[in-house]
Design goal:
With 107 residues, the chain is mainly alpha-helical. It has one domain.
Length: 107
């Protein structure tokens, strides 16, 4: 459970960083012409991939080919949280959750 809390903090920090970067750059040059949600996605992919290599270097973890692939798909989840919010992501999980006690989602 401790790792889950750390992952949640990392996701929250990434979302905050991406939101701040997008907010300050969405009215600059070419970025004015593209939709903000697309800019959030591109920024999310870039930040997550760079963050992956920073984390690998900082923690001295050997590179594996699937780390960038996982970071790429994780960037989509980060982008959804940045554009739609945590409630939207939780509603997606609720919609596809099929088992156990459904009351635990209402806590």
């Amino acid at each position: 459970m401790d790792r889950f809390a750390v992952y949640l903090v990392v996701v929250a920090v990434l979302c905050t960083l991406i939101s701040v970067i997008t907010e300050f750059t969405k009215e600059v040059g070419v970025l004015k012409k593209i939709p903000t949600s697309f800019q959030v996605l591109i920024t999310s992919v870039i930040v997550c991939e760079v963050g992956l290599f920073v984390g690998l270097s900082f923690y001295h973890i050997a590179f594996a080919w699937y780390y960038p692939v996982a970071a790429f798909f994780g960037a989509f989840v980060i982008a959804i949280i940045c554009t739609r919010g945590w409630d939207y992501l939780i509603s997606i999980f609720k919609r596809f959750y099929k088992g156990g006690d459904k009351e635990k989602w209402h806590e």
